[in-house]
């Protein structure tokens, strides 16, 4: 047995573990976002991690085993199933399956893990969390405007300051109008349209000159790598650059109206309507029309939007760059209708949870400080034959709503104190034989004790003084609080919240 090779502890590429601090911070952020969603009248729903592959969308690769971009497996009846790659396609299936009983329009939010079968890289994972909100069953652009307002409110709810973010809005119908104007409509030009959209998406990174190269023959970067372009002529490139390069204005609308056919003009009108609704709601300083916004998924059919953070951070190469997008979405009027004999318009957006968390860390959001919960109070075990007594002390703390644990290891007091430090405990409860006979406990405030330690010259002096350590009776009186009350005061003084104990019959 000693010579047998041990299993190597390792996680799959593209997946990450999350420690308690990250989990707590994420939960605090999600709670703030959830409160905004519910304030707008959205309700929670959950869908499975696995869906039938054909329900996820026609844009998935058409192969014998559809595992390119998604993780797939065959059911025992030989039907292909895939891990969901976003939360929108499963919602479309859920809404269609329950359409007869859902309130219409149907407003819901969902939070959960999604999976991409793609090559992992720095900051690019195969499993990540999204937090979505959608309105299904209305074609009114008021729903799109409201989603954008809610996105803005969510950004501020998690601690981002006004001016550190902007919600940018565009419209796929306008993009379609540009494509039609330059002769790229029709299925035969689908590949070239995608190349044009990818080029537009690089505007912030490469500027108008770089986009011009990507729209034309191609672009060579500083390393010499060449990216093939969309192959447009100069005459085709100019309308595209006019659309994405000029700021949104009445003058731009006039120019584009003269250029577009009916669908493109309809998109312009929708953007103007959204702009007016946003102004009426008092959000014009946070939501703006931006023709450069391009969303990659093919199911978008109308307004599209992105939440972009405008502050600067160093990238992996040490260069100072804008943080960029932390979420986005748009109108997908055809996705639910695939399952039903009637048109079902829908719109929604998704927040990238991990990316938003990185942004909050970069700006030291107060919501993360609030999430730095204390660890539990630790009841030290001085006499192993008194385990029942220590467990009773622990239970009394829990009954008062104070998170607490009895030390379950086999180490002595010094190691137990070190354990409590690692658990981020605000205090420990100590009861040896002398305290037990006297009906008292010693309570040591570890946080205040650490501060007080700086004033002592030696460890011996510190131990003799016992700073931040008090004695309390097991049962209090009107004049003298008991140990539970003392611990509760320490717990709350360090920002701890008393948890409501479970009701007992």
TrEMBL record:
Organismal lineage: Bacteria, Pseudomonadati, Pseudomonadota, Alphaproteobacteria, Hyphomicrobiales
UniProt domain Aminoacyl-transfer RNA synthetases class-II family profile: residue ranges: 27-376
A Gene Ontology cellular-component term: cytoplasm
Organism: Siculibacillus lacustris
UniProt-listed GO biological process terms: histidyl-tRNA aminoacylation
Entry EC number(s): 6.1.1.21
UniProt protein name: Histidine--tRNA ligase
Broad class of the protein's primary localization: cytoplasm
Keyword Iron: no
The entry's keywords: Aminoacyl-tRNA synthetase, ATP-binding, Cytoplasm, Ligase, Nucleotide-binding, Protein biosynthesis
GO terms of molecular function: ATP binding; histidine-tRNA ligase activity
Catalysed reactions, as listed in the record: tRNA(His) + L-histidine + ATP = L-histidyl-tRNA(His) + AMP + diphosphate + H(+)
Entry-linked Pfam families: HGTP_anticodon (PF03129), tRNA-synt_His (PF13393)
Binding site for L-histidine: 86-88, 116, 130, 134, 295, 299-300
Broad EC category: ligase
InterPro entries cross-referenced by the UniProt entry: aa-tRNA-synth_II, aa-tRNA-synth_II/BPL/LPL, Anticodon-bd, Anticodon-bd_dom_sf, His-tRNA-ligase, HisRS-like_core, HisRS/HisZ, HisRS_anticodon
Subcellular location: Cytoplasm
PROSITE patterns, sorted: AA_TRNA_LIGASE_II (PS50862)
Subunit structure: Homodimer.
Protein family per UniProt: Belongs to the class-II aminoacyl-tRNA synthetase family.
């Amino acid at each position: 047995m000693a010579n047998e090779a041990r299993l190597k502890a390792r996680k799959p590429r593209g997946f990450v573990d999350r420690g308690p601090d990250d989990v707590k911070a994420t939960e605090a952020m999600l709670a703030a976002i959830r409160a905004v969603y519910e304030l707008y009248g959205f309700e929670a729903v959950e869908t499975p991690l696995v869906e039938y592959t054909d329900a996820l969308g026609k844009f998935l690769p058409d192969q014998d085993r559809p595992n390119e971009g998604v993780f797939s497996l065959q059911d025992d009846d030989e039907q292909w199933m895939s891990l969901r790659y976003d939360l929108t396609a499963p919602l479309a299936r859920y809404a269609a399956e329950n359409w007869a009983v859902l309130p219409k329009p149907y407003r819901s939010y969902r939070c959960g893990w999604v999976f991409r079968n793609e090559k992992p890289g720095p900051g690019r994972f195969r499993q990540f969390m999204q937090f979505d909100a959608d309105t299904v069953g209305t074609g009114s652009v008021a729903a799109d405007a409201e989603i954008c307002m809610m996105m803005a409110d969510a950004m501020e709810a998690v601690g981002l300051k006004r001016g550190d973010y902007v919600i940018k809005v565009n419209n796929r119908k306008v993009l379609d109008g540009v494509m039609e104007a330059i002769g790229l409509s029709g299925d035969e030009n689908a590949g070239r349209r995608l190349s044009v959209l990818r080029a537009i998406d690089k505007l912030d990174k490469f500027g108008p000159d770089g986009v011009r190269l990507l729209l034309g023959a191609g672009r060579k970067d500083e390393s010499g790598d060449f990216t093939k372009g969309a192959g447009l002529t100069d005459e085709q490139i100019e309308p595209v650059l006019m659309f994405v390069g000029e700021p949104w204005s009445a003058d731009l609308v006039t120019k584009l109206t003269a250029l577009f056919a009916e669908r493109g003009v309809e998109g312009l009108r929708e953007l103007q309507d959204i702009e007016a609704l946003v102004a009426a709601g008092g959000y014009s300083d946070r939501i703006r029309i931006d023709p450069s916004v391009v969303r990659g998924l093919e199911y978008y059919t109308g307004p599209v939007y992105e939440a972009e953070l405008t502050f600067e951070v160093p990238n992996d190469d040490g260069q100072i760059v804008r943080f960029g997008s932390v979420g986005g979405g748009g109108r997908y009027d055809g996705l639910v209708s695939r399952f039903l004999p009637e048109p079902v318009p829908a719109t929604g957006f998704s927040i990238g949870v991990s990316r938003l968390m990185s942004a909050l860390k970069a700006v030291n959001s107060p919501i993360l400080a609030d999430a730095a919960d204390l660890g539990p109070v630790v009841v030290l075990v001085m006499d192993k034959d008194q385990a029942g007594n220590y467990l009773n002390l622990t239970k009394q703390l829990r009954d008062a709503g104070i998170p607490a644990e009895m030390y379950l290891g086999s180490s002595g007091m010094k190691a137990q104190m070190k354990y409590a430090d690692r658990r981020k405990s605000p205090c420990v409860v100590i009861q040896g034989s002398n305290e037990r006979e006297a009906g008292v406990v010693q309570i040591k405030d570890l946080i205040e004790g650490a501060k007080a330690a700086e004033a002592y010259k030696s460890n011996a002096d510190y131990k003799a003084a016992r700073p931040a350590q008090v004695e309390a009776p097991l049962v209090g009186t009107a004049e003298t609080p008991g140990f539970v009350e003392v611990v509760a005061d320490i717990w709350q003084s360090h920002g701890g919240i008393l948890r409501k104990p479970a009701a007992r019959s």
